[in-house]
Each structure stands twice: as structure tokens, then as C-alpha cells.
Amino acid sequence: MSALPRRIIKETQRLMAEPVPGISAVPDESNARYFHVIVTGPEDSPFEGGLFKLELFLPEDYPMSAPKVRFITKIYHPNIDKLGRICLDILKDKWSPALQIRTVLLSIQALLSAPNPDDPLANDVAELWKINESEAIRNAKEWTRKYAMEN
Amino acid sequence: MAEKCQSKVFVESDSEQIDCAVCLQSCVHPTVLPCGHIFCYLCVKGLRRTTKMCAMCRHEFPDDLIENPTLLRPIESSLDAGFEDGHQWFYEGRNGWWQYDERTSKDIEEAFKRGNTTCDVSIAGKIYIVDFVEMEQKQKQNVLRSRRIKRDLSTIPKKGISGIRAAASSQTTEELETRLAMLNLFEPRDE
Ligand SMILES: [Zn+2]
Ligand SMILES: [Zn+2]
């Protein structure tokens, strides 16, 4: 029997009872530390209309260390690389145990609304975002349509 | 970009229940950091081991806070408290027995009463396996690191509770009241 720390139980219950608008996070049936996440592309962003799948995993010493989060759906974004890894300070050195799954997912949603090409992960995407923003946005919309709008 | 945590210290007038932002439960042995934020003693221990800063305002805190914690309430009242049969759970330290904190103790007792052979407990952000057959506690990620445990009368001689020395908590009421007054007067520093 592997008991789940109460904090994880509490966070999960709250995520179910009061879901964050535009975000769904459901724990896996066989592993309560693994969440299937869907983030809706924010309005007025190139990702609008898209449904983005992510995976979120709570490591053994969560909340002392940050959740591990990755995009599964392909996305054209300067802070998300080909493998779906996200460049976000709170997932790395700016993590604090007072943050929660909820706050992490909200921050990721905010990152979709406000890409930050000056702090890039996917270098070629960030490069284009800086020199030709309208083309980059066109690409992002195209990828959203292609990869995030199918069933 | 990231949502900043702007919660502040809140000490209710009767200081009965303080929520801990680390374990999301009411504080067990509330411990005050120099910045004024309050967490469970064991949650502070977890912070010291990992991020080394306050979970709310990111201020660093000195290591000796673990040895000499500023507790909101003395631990005396918890020291000899036991279950209905007057027993309590203990783990062995370098030179004596320590009483488990109330929350962990309750979890262990429940699993023991159900007749489980082991149970997992989360202490200071780490998971431990409590083994009722071997009567020991092992780190889940390093089972070679084990400590003996026992269920014994709550009144046996002991070092303290979960790392808080019995002697360390003998602050006078006056000192505590001054502390509380200060907390209500000053907001924690923010960056
Ligand atoms: Zn706590
Ligand atoms: Zn603080």
C-alpha cells in the first residue's frame, strides 16, 4: 500500500471540485501522481481554439521539488521545445512549495498568452519570433490548427 | 509571468489554527521564520533540506532554526500525550527516543490498528516506510537508512518531538506574547 501525502489528495480534490477555467487535470487511474492535463489555447493568442495535451508528474518529494510538466501536443512557441519541455522559472529555480498544481498550470496558460522569445528554449522559433513576429504567429496558428484541433 | 504568492501571515487572535502553505493542513508545531511566516516544524525542516528559503517570500533562513526553532506554542502539552491506552509512537535517534509528531503518530497508529504490516508516511517532504514486522522506519528511496521504532508508554523518557528538543520549547509566555504582538504589527518583508 502506497499512501498518497494528504497535500496531493487535497490538491486533487480541489482541482476536481473547482477546476481552473480552460484547464482540466485528471489523475491517472493507476498512478495518482500522474495527471492528464488539457489546456485550452487562450483567447487572443495564436493558440486560440486549440486543445493542448500535457502530462504532469509529481515527484516523490513533491512539494519540496517542482512538478514535472511537458507538452504532449506539438506547439510552436519560443519557450517550449520539440520535446514539449517548458522553459518556466517556477518549474526550475523559482519553484516554491507554496505553489501548487493549479498555480503551475495557470502559469503555463499565461505563457501561451505571453510568449517570451528573450528567454527561449526552442531557439529557431524564438529567433523567428524576434525578427519576424507576424510570420512566427502565423506558424503558431498553423501548428495549432494542425496539431491541436483534431480529436 | 508566474502567479506570485501574496498571502500574508495570519495569526488568529486565539492562534488555534494556522494553515500551513507547504502541507496545506493546519500547522503541527507552528514555527515562525525570521520573515514572520509560519509553517509546521517538519515543513520548515523540509524547506531547509531543499529550497532553503521561506515558501512564501523566498527569504533565506538560518540553519540553526532547526536546532532552536521559534515555536508559537511550547510542546510540553504534547510531550506526554498518548492514545487511549496511554501509548505513543517513537523513533530512535542517535542517543535516545523521539516521539513522532502528532499527525504522523496518528497515521501510524491507524495503520497499526488496521493490522497492516507496513505503512507509508510523509515526513518533511520525504516518504518513509514504517515496518511493523521489523519495527523500523526506512526511507523509501534508500531502504538501507533505517531507524528503530517502538510503541511505548507516552511517559517514557524522550528527547522531544520530531526533532524539537523538550528543553528547546521552554519559552516563557511573556516571550511568546511579545512575538505574537510583533507579528501582528509588522507585515512580513516582501521583495
Ligand atoms: Zn505543514
Ligand atoms: Zn517568509
From TrEMBL, chain A:
> InterPro entries, per this entry?
Ub_conjugating_enzyme, UBC, UBQ-conjugating_AS, UBQ-conjugating_enzyme/RWD
One Pfam family in the UniProt entry: UQ_con
Q: Does the keyword DNA repair apply?
A: no
- Kindly state which keywords UniProt assigns to this record, in alphabetical order: ATP-binding, Nucleotide-binding, Transferase, Ubl conjugation pathway
Cellular component, GO annotation: UBC13-MMS2 complex
Question: Is Metal-binding given among the entry's keywords?
Answer: no
> What GO molecular function annotation could you give as one example from this UniProt entry?
transferase activity
Top-level taxon: Eukaryota
Gene Ontology biological-process annotations: protein ubiquitination
Which intervals hold domain UBC core? 3-149
Active site residues per record: C87
Assigned protein family = Belongs to the ubiquitin-conjugating enzyme family.
Q: What is the designated name of this protein?
A: UBC core domain-containing protein
Source lineage: Eukaryota, Metazoa, Ecdysozoa, Arthropoda, Hexapoda
From TrEMBL, chain B:
- InterPro entries given in the database record: RING-HC_RNF146, RNF146, WWE-dom_subgr, WWE_dom, WWE_dom_sf, Znf_RING, Znf_RING/FYVE/PHD, Znf_RING_CS
One short Pfam family name for this protein?
WWE
Q: What CDD domains does this protein's entry cite?
A: RING-HC_RNF146
Cellular component, GO annotation:
cytosol; nucleus
- What positions does the domain RING-type occupy? 20-58
Instruction: Enumerate the UniProt keywords alphabetically.
Output: Cytoplasm, Metal-binding, Transferase, Ubl conjugation pathway, Wnt signaling pathway, Zinc, Zinc-finger
Molecular function, one GO term: poly-ADP-D-ribose binding
Q: Which SUPFAM superfamilies does this chain map to?
A: RING/U-box (SSF57850), WWE domain (SSF117839)
Q: In which pathway does it act?
A: Protein modification; protein ubiquitination
Compartments (UniProt record): Cytoplasm, Cytosol
- A GO BP term, please? protein autoubiquitination
Biological role stated in the UniProt entry? E3 ubiquitin-protein ligase that specifically binds poly-ADP-ribosylated proteins and mediates their ubiquitination and subsequent degradation.
This chain's protein is named: E3 ubiquitin-protein ligase
Q: State the species of origin.
A: Parthenolecanium corni
- Which taxonomic lineage does the organism of this UniProt entry have? Eukaryota, Metazoa, Ecdysozoa, Arthropoda, Hexapoda
